[in-house]
């Protein structure tokens, strides 16, 4: 049997916190009393939802990437086997109820017994010891007229580390029936899928019950079990980004009261006004870009936190960001034939360099863990400050002299900036969603961070404060973004002719194994390798002190973080940063 365990360590510890001007040993108060650790009973049953027929797993008839497309669309390139995970695709069919959704009212039935067939993709632990008992069910986004699993791209590293199962559900017409949808992409594999009743349903009114039935198939299968031999999940949390967040908001208001198949909902990058009389928790996470663009409406944003609603906003983050586009880009190129806008090396079409580098996904990791504790133990997530606004119509974000947003959850990448990251941009297509990221000048960096030590102090203090507040998970230094950001910083200085390519290659020789060790949780060898990298940069980058300090800032900060977030390694900050 799988056993749901606390996803974060809450035992009081004596750790080190740092001010901005030096290292101070500060005893930290124990956290607030945690909720009773006895598991509460699962609240969702899905008794009113019909049992669909599940077939599969669907066999691959070609290698991934083969033009015959005999494999799941956007099949992951993550090494799941190394993590003890597997990817499988299933077809789900049955007869669905058609719903009309109106505001926050309970949905109205406008049709029944309507046949459908769709697909789900499952990425799960192979065996129970790895499984934490929780399924993240993602409503696939179809804004591009094909299925896109945004929340998987953003958070898969954390989901795998914590033992979640992930299920992507193809619920909407565009993902299947558009000219770039699944049926067109692979007529052989997907030609039998249909969520339109032979073209007679021209809206997405079937999507809500299709999603319910897909979740029911995972939660309590009547036949083929999409989770294989894993124990039945204790909890299912729905998640969706952008348009999918809007769909899930509709689902929460109109269908969850009827279906009762979900334990909680995460709305990422949008989601409308929510009813206040349900017991199902909802967690909203929005970027600065969602607030600035109005994707999150003023009315939705005005809804106060409550025992069943929590809303977080991340300053400097954008609706579509660097993490999403760089993870998703290679798979889109493989399966669609083109990279998304803003992908590295592609022509820039926006007014400013696109894609915020603020790693909102690290906050999203904490959102899922808090949501589990919310439904399993009744432990409500912490509140968070809102992004400050100077006007609501049009929505206008308050900014400092550099153009950085004020208020909100402030990660180190925003509070101790190396770049001006913003949720806003202008230009064609999705530029208004992709935000921007503009490197600070040498003069600005010198003024903000007069020494490498002052920068590291600020990063450590800000990050530790966010961990203590609950906005970041404690194993955050295992996130590969810390290493890829350092790699990309070096590449930018190489492209500008400020770091020699041979020096950069020597740094990469050390960075690659440091990344492998750090993301695997082996902090000590990662720190040793980063120390060697810092020394090599100090010795090798002699012609451009500003470029040298840029590398040292990022490297020394990454060296310091695990020592004071996960528990002290030998040495102090003073030893790490002379």
What does this structure look like?
This protein has helices spanning 150-162, 173-177, 182-185, 187-190, 207-219, 243-254, 256-259, 288-293, 298-301, 322-335, 360-377, 412-415, 431-434, 442-448, 452-469, 481-495, 501-519, 523-540, 545-565, 573-576, and strands spanning 17-18, 23-24, 53-55, 85-100, 108-125, 134-139, 165-169, 235-241, 264-268, 282-287, 309-314, 389-392, 395-397, 419-422, 436-439. With 578 residues, it is α/β, with parallel strands linked by helices. Among the domains are: 1-34 and 449-578, no CATH class; 53-280, no CATH class. Strands 3-4-5-7-6-8-9-10-11 form a 9-stranded mixed sheet, sandwiched between helices. Strands 1-2 form a two-stranded antiparallel sheet. Strands 12-13 form a two-stranded antiparallel ribbon. Strand 6, helix 1 and strand 7 form a beta-alpha-beta unit. It starts with 16 loop residues before the first strand and ends with a helix. Residues 6-41 and 568-578 have low confidence and may be disordered.
